[in-house]
Sequence to fold (149 residues):
Amino acid sequence: MPAFPTARLAALKAALVMCGLMATQQEAHADLRICNQTTSRVGVAVGYRDDRGWVTEGWWNMTPGNCETLLQGALRSRFYYIYAIDYDRGGEWGGRHFMCTQPRAFTIRDVGDCVQRSYERTGFFEVDTGDIVTWTVDLTEPGRAGPSR
Fold:
């Protein structure tokens, strides 16, 4: 059996290293992202379950046509919850899943007794990511989320 030429072996090793780097980069890009596909400025909050229970976080202030990463890394849950408000024209993207928010930047643990704990009780819409590790939600017309991918 002939020996593998050294130059060819080096090229093969380089290709394998490059494949490993690309796989690592793809994993690093696994996120929950929101894209503001409107002509308005919007504020976004997200709710999800982590190892310690329910948590809501906000506000990401987004300019028209831009995307923001709300959660970095591979998604661990199947369901995430989004609430957004249109700062310029009014309106909201909400739903029937109630969680706690407040007017300024926040991270709030637990979703119960919002008002008694001096928070607002806000309806979020559910995003079912299935078993996908990265997900993007497009905010389009107020009251409706666009296609997700």
